Amino acid sequence: MNQMRKAKRSIKHLLLGIPFFSFALVATSTLAANNEEITACKLLRFGDFSQLEQGNAAMSITNAEYVPSQTLDADTELWTYKYSRLLGAPIPKGTNSLPEHCLVEGYAAPTIRFQLRLPMDQVWNQRFLLNACMGFCGEVSNYPTMAGVMRNYATMSHDGGHTAAGFDGLWAKNNVPLREDFAYRANHVVAVAAKAVIERFYSKQLKYSFISGCSKGGHAGIMAAKRYPNDFDGVIARGPTINYTKVNLVNCMDNAKAILDENDNALLDASYTDFISQAVMQACDHKDGLVDGLISDPRRCDFDPQTLLCSHNTTGKCLTPRQVNAIKEIYAPSYDQQGNIIYGGLPYGSEPEWTGWLFPEAPFIKPYHYYAATEYLKYLAFPRERYNQGNWRDFSYNNEVGELSPILSFMDADHPDLTGFKNSGGKMIVLHGWSDAAIPAYATIDWYESVINYMGKDNTYDFARLFLPPGLVHCGIEGPGAETFDAIAALVHWLDTGIAPDALMTQKEDPQGNILFTRPVYPYPQEAQYIGTGDPKKAENFRPIVPNFKNN
Ligand SMILES: [Ca+2]
């Protein structure tokens, strides 16, 4: 069968053939583990894993226990539901039954804490899923591992090698080894550790390993593909912070400078979010041919914040000249000294997520962009702490980029040569929501284009596909777009058959789990366009087009 016929079959397969959820994947077995399996789980506690990779990936297990099947409380059920979407391995709404499994906890040397949930032998799908931590990492989360075990994956989460909460960078102060664990090493050594435990626990062989995460957790998959091309068969990278130093010191820094006045008070608060969002939607929603509350490609939008300026006869909400300028700066790219774009501005359509990232959620909280920029600057950007007493606004990326090279060399994942990963048979799905207000999708498009330039278009499409879902926010599920998509099933299909995903089915669910609409997302550079007839809430009424846009 030639490639074209294969591609056609695969689109049809994705759009019409298979049900969106393969419920068979979700553990429904009520079989209780036998005593032998329970004992095998507990004995993992006493395993000697000190010589993994000649000691480089040495691991100690501090707890190994059999967890009987149980019903989750409502809060845990909700967070597990959310995390399953963040992983690209969704579970149906209302799944509150955690299957029996073996829980293993411990740390990889020196200080990387992890947890690994192992489905019982009869239901294990012979796959390992590592959830790479996001933000500045710093905690071990139960939710991704619970979500993964519900899909019968042996699933691990970890803290990146340190303890922290939110955008707290103090752990990195004057400590380059901790930063190296955070940047690339942690995901490698915990994967080595997990594979050793899997080999000891199961009667069957491990078939596929996956790494999935959002933001810094998306960076992790691309970094792993670069540095450790044999660690993972499949990568899911959502909203990735690929050029991590620029993310913090250009993107977040410039957004923080735009929105905060000289006393670090925000020029706009969360009461402006809907106002600006509605104005942008009014100007641009229809430009993709469908008024649906989604902007399929913000490069088609020409919204002018000046239209929101207060005038003498304005009666409703409006913006002062200074506020208008702030909004213009937020949409505008950042430039280097030669006038080249070094970071795209936030896209039109990202406004629903501006509460929090730009407009403080409460008077005593600053925008998240501020914390990411200033904590990175203080504790991660330079080998020794700097700027602790100085004004963060004095920092200029263009002036100091030379001094940043030591951190850039190990922190950033934007090198375009992924030949090793491709040659090892690895496959990668990169997703970046157009409504992401933390990291603009433009940065990920620029990186993907750089990979294409370096490796060739067909060669790149063969192992790495980029999807840009409209309305998808940074790492949450609260945006206007569809956030339920089974990226991991697409990867498994790709690995099993060699047929790349020519479409990713997405669906939008209400809080009760009812499906509000379905929509295909086609790989970059294609866009899903409404065909003009039929129900626009149904995926079959969309087709792929290739828009002709200049990036940014
Ligand atoms: Ca639209």
From TrEMBL:
The UniProt keywords, alphabetically, are:
Calcium, Disulfide bond, Hydrolase, Metal-binding, Serine esterase, Signal
Q: Which InterPro entries match?
A: AB_hydrolase_fold, Tannase/feruloyl_esterase
- Entry keyword annotation includes Acetylation: no
Q: Which residues form the signal peptide?
A: 1-24
Keyword check for Metal-binding: yes
Task: Check the record and name the SUPFAM superfamilies matching this protein.
Answer: alpha/beta-Hydrolases
* PANTHER family for the chain: FERULOYL ESTERASE B-RELATED
Q: Which family does it belong to?
A: Belongs to the tannase family.
UniProt name for this protein: Feruloyl esterase
**UniProt organism field:** Pseudoalteromonas piscicida
